[in-house]
Amino acid sequence: TKCRGSRVIALLDAAVVYCGSPGVGSAQSANRRTENTVTSSLLEEVDASAYPPRSLADIVGHHASVVRLRSRFQNARHDVPVLLYGPSGVGKMTVARMYSKALLCDTARADRSIPCCECVSCRSFELAGSNNLDFYVLDASLHQDPTDLLRNLNVVPHGPRRVIIIENFDKAPPEFADALLKSMEEGDREDGDEKATETPRSIIVLAKDLEDVRNAGQSRCEVERLSPLSIEEAQKLCARAVAHYGIGLETRDAFDNLVVGSRGLPALISAAGIEIQGSPSVTGKRIRQVLRTDWGEPILFFWLRILGGVLTESQSQRADELQRDKLAVFSRHAVSALLSVLRTGRIDTLCEPALRFVEMTVFSEVFRALDDATGLGGSTPEELLSGLGKAFFYDRFGEDLEGIEFERLLRITLQRQIRGRQP
Predict the structure, then answer these.
(1) Closest to 152 in 3D by CA, of 141, 142, 166
(2) Contact, 298 vs 311, CB < 8 A?
(3) Nearest alpha carbon to residue 403 among 418, 417, 419, 386
């Protein structure tokens, strides 16, 4: 064929050697055998009682932050506010609640950072919406004025300390943020308040983006960044969730899909566990559906069709299932994956979970169609993809697009697709 000696075919051959043919081959199978052994060990040794976490000691991941929070109990240093920030679902509220639970535990114990989990205060944390005189959670994004904040800062607690968690502080209106910063600076209640008290209070602030939190707020807090879990940490937490929710996994592939598809976010693991709890035989396909990572193959079929490749009726139907409003996002991930596989010949290192479990043969079809559509054998991946965009428009619309970047071509392509102009 015209592209027999091209860079794409050479890389494709290397990928087939790595992945095996057909399906998953020697190297990848060896990796999966190792993963299966690890998975089996995790599922056998898991302590389901540690899920959901009952204390800071049960938290999976965030090791450095947890150690620093627990060290606060050694010198009773709880008056300095804590700012926890990180992506949605990373576990900020869980860490904040476990720290608060230990702070408010009524039972005397050797390690004050570990709550007894039996007293009235500890049991209240097992209940949804456990706001009370000692503990309160306030969503800063829902309040346009600081009235609720000031009122809750001034509440006299039932016990020796008042703990307030303020979530979405990076989305707080200016007046709300100003009131909290003033309270942090002054360290006491409003002047003239008859209920004013010197009872200690602890403030825990949660935010997604640190850059959206004022510098004045950052400087008054001990700042802790919570990052997504590593693969090993996600495996450990997924094993606990599987045991806790009584989930039967049909294959090890299902567990791998849960680990990778969770993106290291405990909230996604929990949400998936709740949706499939009690299921006796869960497949990898079902996990991908639950985690919304089942669009990997369809988006590659979509691009294969744009390239003029031949699709089976089933493949064409899957491409048509894609949500039109998500095509731009999916395509960016697909293009990134194509570049990565073109460079490395590997699919096990892809960052996007939806594309990690796509069969290599699907990538192979796209690569061959890419070569045929561009005629740029031996070119760099970037040149091939740019040639893809230009070839698509020259052939379909006859437009002069010389010098236009591929990213812009991608956007125009998707706009035309969404409007119903089929290739």
Answers:
(1) 166
(2) no
(3) 386
Cα 381 off chain centre by = 28
Q: Is the peptide bond before 22 cis (omega within 30 degrees of 0)?
A: yes
Render the burial of 160-196: b for 16+ CB within 10 Å, e for the rest.
ebbbbbbbbbbbbeeebbebbeebbeeeebeeeeeee
Give the list of residues 6+ apart from residue 245 with CB closer than 8 angstroms, or none. Answer: 273, 274, 276, 277, 278
Cα–Cα dist 152/136, whole Å:
8
Place of tokens 């290192």: 349
d(CA 121, CA 242): 29
Please state, in angstroms and rounded to a whole number, the distance separating the CA atoms of residues 238 and 235: 5
Q: Show Cβ contacts of residue 63 under 8 Å, excluding neighbours closer than 6 positions.
A: none
In the sheet where 222-225 sits, what is the strand order?
Answer: 135-139, 162-167, 201-207, 82-85, 222-225
Q: Environment class of residue 394 by beta-carbon count within 10 Å: exposed (0-12), middle (13-18) or buried (19+)?
A: middle
> Which residues fall within 8 angstroms of residue 60, CB to CB, at 6 or more apart?
53, 229, 233, 236, 237, 240, 266
Q: What are phi and psi of 159, to 5 degrees?
A: -100, -160
Residue with tokens 């509440």: 155
Alpha carbon of residue 135 to chain centroid: 28
Strand partners, 164: 136, 203
Residues 209 and 198: their CA atoms lie apart, in Å, by 32
Buried b or exposed e, range 355-393, using 16+ CB within 10 angstroms: bbbbbbebbbbbbbbbbbbbebbebebeebbbbbbbbbb
Q: Which helix (H) or strand (E) holds 137?
A: strand 135-139
- Compute the distance between CA of residue 161 and CA of residue 132 in angstroms, rounded to an integer: 12
- What are the 10-residue block averages of pLDDT along the chain, 423 residues in total? 35 33 33 45 68 93 95 86 93 94 89 90 76 83 73 75 89 80 62 53 90 82 93 92 90 90 92 92 91 90 81 89 74 74 74 86 82 62 60 48 52 52 41
CB 110 within 8 A of CB 142: no
The radius of gyration computed from the CA coordinates of the chain, to the nearest angstrom, equals 27
Q: Is the dihedral of CA 195, 197, 202, 208 positive or negative?
A: positive
